[in-house]
Amino acid sequence: MGGGMEELDEKDLAILRLLQRDARTPASVIAQRIGVPENTVRFRMRRLVERGVIRGFVALVDPRKVGLSVSAAFMIKLDPERREEAINELRGWEEIVNIYQFSGEYDLIAVAFVKGLAELQSLIDKVKGVKGVRETNVLVTTRVIKAQSVFSLQ
């Protein structure tokens, strides 16, 4: 099977719900909350990591509180012959935190965080210089309305 919901039972989903809200929740606390032995929780967590359901455990950092006060979305059109080459280059840049491939007018949307407008202009120039990038349209964030990393797990 391909990693879909059918492979996750209610205990797996309960573990994931708790970890999404606080990845530091001890296995003993999770076990108590969902009513299974701690060893079961540890086994299931390890299995969720091995299967790629859990991709990692990270601290969610507020970019503005660490000096990354400007964010922008780069809408990018690619040359079909150099698509993968361009994607691979952009994927390696630390300023870019998310890249989504789309159907439609633009091929990619890349979300980036930088210190200020001068750094944003540098990044814009750098993106335009990538072989395979045909066109870019940059949208600067003026207000964050919703940014979350917790998914609804039914």
Could you walk me through the main structural features you see in this protein, from its secondary elements to its overall organization?
The longest helix has 13 residues, at 38-50. A 4-stranded antiparallel β-sheet has the order 2-3-1-4. It has 2 domains: 8-50, Arc Repressor Mutant, subunit A; 63-140, Alpha-Beta Plaits (2-Layer Sandwich). It has 5 helices and 4 strands. 14% of the residues are buried. Helix 2 (27-34) packs across helix 3. It is of the alpha+beta class and 154 residues long.
Present the secondary structure layout.
Blueprint: H1 10-21, H2 27-34, H3 38-50, E1 70-78, H4 83-91, E2 96-101, E3 108-114, H5 117-128, E4 133-140
Antiparallel strand pairs: 1-3, 1-4, 2-3
Helix pairs in contact: 2-3
Question: What are the main properties of this structure?
Answer:
4 strands; about 20% strand; alpha+beta; about 35% helix; single chain; 5 helices; Alpha-Beta Plaits; 2 domains
Q: What is the CATH homology-level superfamily of the largest domain?
A: Lrp/AsnC effector binding domain/regulation of amino acid metabolism (RAM) domain
The proportion of residues forming helix, as a percent range, comes to 25-40%
Query: What portion of the residues fall into strands of 2 or more residues?
Result: 15-25%
Q: What's the main sheet like?
A: 4 strands, antiparallel
Distance between the termini: 19 Å
The shape, in one word, is: elongated
The number of E-state strands comes to 4
Number of helices: 5
CATH class of the largest domain: Alpha Beta
